[in-house]
Hints:
Layout: H1 4-17, H2 24-28, H3 35-76, H4 89-97, H5 110-123, H6 130-171, H7 179-206, H8 211-220, H9 224-233, H10 235-239, H11 258-270, H12 276-301, H13 323-326, E1 327-335, E2 345-357, E3 360-375, E4 378-397, E5 400-410, E6 426-439, E7 445-453, E8 466-473
Antiparallel strand pairs: 1-2, 1-8, 2-3, 3-4, 4-5, 5-6, 6-7, 7-8
Helix pairs in contact: 1-8, 3-4, 3-6, 3-7, 5-6, 5-9, 6-7, 11-12
Amino acid sequence: MKHLFLCLLWAEIFTIACPAQGSIDSLRSSMPSDAMLRDIGQTSAKTDKTLIQRTEKYLRHLSNIEGRIKRQWQQTHPGEPDRFSPNDYQHRIQQLHDTNVHIAPRTYVSRLDSLQSALHFLRTQKSVSSTDMAILSDATGRVEQLQKHLDMSQDIYQYIGERRQQLTRLLASYSQLPAGLAKDFEQLKTTAYYYRQELEQYKTLINRPRKMEEKALELLNKIPAFGQFMAKYSMLAQLFRLPADYDNPGSLSGLQTRAQVQQLLQQQAGTGGAGGMAVLQEQVAGAQDKLRAMRDNVTKYGAGGQDMDIPGFIPDQQKTKTFLQRLTYVFNLQLARSSTYFPNTGNLGFSVGYKIKDKSTAGVGLSYDLGLGSGWDHIHFSSQGLGLRSFMDWRVKSSYYLAGGFEENYLIAFHNIAQLRNYSTWQGSALVGLEKKYRISQKMQGNIQLLYDILYKRELPPGQMLKFRVGYSF
């Protein structure tokens, strides 16, 4: 099986440039495999499955919140008729799993549009074999399913907004919401916000093309027939239908030029007297300030405009991340106290942390005490100890954190793993202190820790009371 995308692309290009130089069949022998098509299908299916699972989880959570709000409302309004309209969450969950539901694509993601157009174009080629057509059909179906569920997710978000507005009107009868009811209603609003943020993250993830896809689409775009196909059948073409002669300069005749528009504005401003232009410029500046403020709000709160009215709400970016995306890897170094300028040992630590919230991380790790020798002229590396550690930090202000953890250390030189099984020689440490984090690059942070060991007197021989560590995380 050969790489169908590049095969058809090169064949088409060669056919246009040199019609007599072979055919698709003769070129297939030198083309790569069709792994890219299978990868497109598998990647789309994996993303689609995750999107369905996450959307279903949000819907069930919102249904439970609404149930609590309804019960609390009925407790505070005994004897009154039920004013809560039934929600549609369960029906929408069923729709997500129904493969027979068909809706017109509405959510535009440029990569999905290009992939669907490319796959449909290749399926129209008569030279495609039945085996290759099966692979194309499978990839096309998976991409279309992902597009469908993106559209359904957008509809679900709009429905969540409508339910929220209904609850807002219903709860307006309270002069002051009871504490429990207010808490659940705030939770409903923040859940809607996080769902919207997760949808935006999925669209960003889907929109990242892979190198092979970029190469294939680049070659496709050189084929005039594909350009005509895109202009007629792509989603972008459906959203913004252009006339057949849109690129003909003659079709622009009669439209005002930029210079004519500027001249008209100056004439209108002149009717306002000497300060007419100044007033116009002031109004334009005011409009620009308002647009800038709106843009800042969208940047701060995300695209979910209806979620901007949550007083005191600070989004937690970890809420919409997967387990693996929350992991952080930490390396640090601690030099042991020495009577000379040369340190006796270096404690090397490696830990894996899980970001509980934006301001808090917890994790576990290992440490290794590396012996360095007794001086600059007597450098000698040796195994001087091993440790197991746990840690947690909590941001208290800006880049300053309260840090702590528990450690179990084997503080005796060892030559083989069997020596470490003598558990009675392991000694514990309870650490608490301050940590300063600073940015090294976009993906890497540096950290400096000053820790106090509460159990240092119990170590034999007595250990360090204060531990100074430096490191970085990524």
